[in-house]
Every structure is written in structure tokens, then in C-alpha cells.
Design goal:
mainly alpha, 355 residues
Length: 355
């Protein structure tokens, strides 16, 4: 779909017989870095787009692995824990229908965003000055262009995490000030894309038959994607299916170990990671559920479908906490955790799109 969107943007006549892409108003609201990349490749007359895909996949894999390694090593102070974090985060774990966390076989937009996430967290935990806050949300704004669906919930979670994590360093007026400045930087970077998205949605919604729209949505999407309550429940059930149910307990145990044994900066970093995790749960599960109940009461369709997709970021954050916590316990107990880790995360990534 992304390649089709890119080609339609260059030469709309290619799809003049297509039901969707014959009208630019139906798709111009959708923009991300992949669309621009394919368009640049076409303008440069690169006849083999698969070459671009291979290069992008290689670069994405490198940035992804390096980022999660650096985050794991920074938090635990151990290169081995960094390697474990990077490898654990590559495993593909399905979430809501058609969505997933992990290093997928293709450099899809959500994977590109996942490659940026560890750098955002690294900046967030080490933010000491206004410039650090601005850099964090400048990167978050750029990441929005990679995967717009992930951008707002992760940015809000990052803002809350930094406010809670660094509240002991900044007085309230200054904290409010840096939050406002950083938020404005983020909004300025995403404004062209976000504005185009809102304009496209408003244009597409004018004059539509609400009954027909509802029927089309239910035919196009699985029920757990259209229904916020079912979507949150299905995503959590998928993430914690089978032996992976232990993941939540390992993450909680890791956080408790770090809080008990850590001091100063380590506890501050823990507050950042845990707050980010909690806010993502609220935004991805609670907010869609409330909005869905309000939509039912008003007899309308839900206004948003994508917030629930942010639930995928529970996976790497819980993995980070679990491995960080294991790095703080005695060597004897680490060996006891090893078989459990193999049981929970020892499956290779899936070879096809997760369902």
C-alpha cells in the first residue's frame, strides 16, 4: 500500500481505474518517510525498488539493534545485558490484529519507529538541561514522520515520564516551562504531516452515510480493531499469551529489584521507564475503551482506531526492565533465570505477517 501511495503521488494516471487511488483526496492525508523514500527512488530513476528495500532493511536493523543495545548497556552498566536486550527486542510478538512488536522481515514504518524508540528513552533518562528536552522531542517529532500512528501516544508518554523522572531536579515553574517549550518543538515538527492528515480526514468524512461507513468499517477491519474495548483486551491477550504471561511478572520483578538496590540516577531512570510504560497502558487501553463507550452511548462510530496500536511498546519496555533487573541480582540467581528466559522468549521471529 505504501509503494502504491508513493507511485500515485508521482503519477496519478497510473491508477485512474482504481476505486481508491483514482482520487488524490482519498490518500494524500497518508504521508510518512517510506512514501518519500520510494518517491525519491522513482525520481532518481532507480529501476529496482527492491534494492532500496534491502538497503533500508539493513540500515533499520543496524539502528534498531544498536539502539536497544545502548539502552540496555546504559541502564545496567553491562555490555552483556545490552546484547541480551537488543536480541530480546528483535523477537516478533503479535499484538492487535495484523500488528506486532519486533524486527520484522521488512522495514515497515512501525519497525522504523521501534528503531528510534531506544534513542528517545536514552535522551529522556539523561535529560538535565532544556537542550536535552528539546533534543528528545525533536527526535520524537522526526519519529512521528516514520509512523504517525505511534507518534502522539509515545510523545505524551515520554513527556509524562520525563516530568515524573526529573521532578526532583526542576522546580515546578521551570518543569512546566521546559514541558511547554519541548511540546512546541514537537508540534512544530509534526505540524505539516498532522495538518495534512486532519485535513484529509475531514475532507473524506464530508457527506458520508454514517450507516454505510459503519458497515464498511466492520467489513474492512476485525471487530477487535474497530472496538476499542475488544482491541485492548485482544492486544494484551496476544502479548501475554502462553509462557509470555511471565513477561509482566518479570518486568515488575525487575522494577522492584532496581528500586530496592538502585540509588540516585538509577532510581530516576527507573521512574522514567516505568512512567512511560504506565502512560502507554492508559493511552493505548483505557482511553480507547472510554472513547468506545462514549461512542456507543452517542450512537456513533469511534473517532479513532490507532491508539490501541501503541500497546506494542509494552513489550520492549518490559523486556528492558526484566533484563535490567536480572543484571542487578547475584550470579547464582541469574543462572536460574536463564531457562525461564529461554522458555518465554526463545522462539524465533515469525516468517509471515502476525495475525
Amino acid at each position: 500500500m505504501i509503494l502504491t501511495r508513493a507511485l500515485a503521488g508521482i503519477d496519478p494516471t497510473l491508477y485512474r481505474q482504481d476505486y481508491l487511488f483514482n482520487d488524490a483526496g482519498n490518500y494524500t492525508f497518508y504521508n510518512n518517510a517510506n512514501v518519500v523514500l520510494f518517491q525519491i527512488a522513482a525520481v532518481l530513476s532507480i529501476d529496482r525498488p527492491d534494492t532500496v528495500l534491502r538497503v533500508l532493511k539493513g540500515l533499520t536493523s543496524f539502528v534498531f539493534l544498536l539502539g536497544w543495545y545502548l539502552l540496555g548497556a546504559r541502564l545496567s552498566g553491562s555490555w552483556l545485558a545490552g546484547v541480551a536486550t537488543a536480541l530480546a527486542c528483535t523477537l516478533t510478538i503479535p499484538t492487535v490484529v495484523g500488528d506486532y512488536w519486533g524486527l520484522y522481515l521488512e522495514a515497515q514504518p512501525r519497525v522504523l519507529f521501534g528503531a528510534c524508540l531506544p534513542y528517545i528513552v536514552l535522551l529522556a533518562i539523561d535529560a538535565r538541561r532544556l537542550a536535552h528536552w528539546v533534543a528528545t522531542f525533536a527526535l520524537s517529532g522526526l519519529a512521528f514522520w516514520l509512523h504517525p500512528a505511534s507518534g502522539p501516544p509515545v510523545a505524551l508518554a515520554t513527556m509524562a515520564a520525563m516530568a515524573v523522572g526529573h521532578c526532583d531536579r526542576l522546580r515546578l515553574p521551570r518543569l512546566v516551562g521546559v514541558c511547554l517549550v519541548s511540546g512546541l518543538v514537537y508540534l512544530a515538527i509534526i505540524a505539516p504531516n498532522f495538518g495534512q492528515y486532519v485535513s484529509g480526514v475531514l475532507q473524506a468524512s464530508r457527506g458520508g452515510d454514517p450507516v454505510l461507513t459503519a458497515e464498511a468499517m466492520h467489513l474492512r477491519f476485525a471487530e477487535e480493531y474497530v472496538d476499542g474495548i475488544q482491541g485492548a483486551a485482544a492486544s494484551l491477550k496476544s502479548i501475554f499469551a502462553g509462557p509470555r504471561a511471565v513477561l509482566a511478572l518479570l518486568g515488575l520483578a525487575g522494577a522492584l529489584i532496581i528500586w530496592r538496590r538502585g540509588k540516585g540516577d538509577e532510581r530516576r531512570s527507573l521512574r522514567v521507564v516505568v512512567t512511560m510504560l504506565v502512560v502507554i497502558v492508559v493511552l493505548a487501553c483505557l482511553v480507547p475503551a472510554i472513547e468506545n463507550m462514549a461512542a456507543r452511548a452517542a450512537g456513533r462510530q469511534p473517532l479513532q482506531l490507532d491508539l490501541v496500536r501503541a500497546v506494542r511498546y509494552l513489550v520492549p519496555l518490559l523486556l528492558v526492565l526484566a533484563i535490567w533487573g536480572v543484571s542487578r541480582i547475584d550470579h547464582h540467581w541469574r543462572l536460574k533465570f536463564l531457562p525461564l528466559g529461554i522458555l518465554v522468549f526463545g522462539r524465533p521471529p515469525v516468517s509471515g505477517r502476525p495475525g
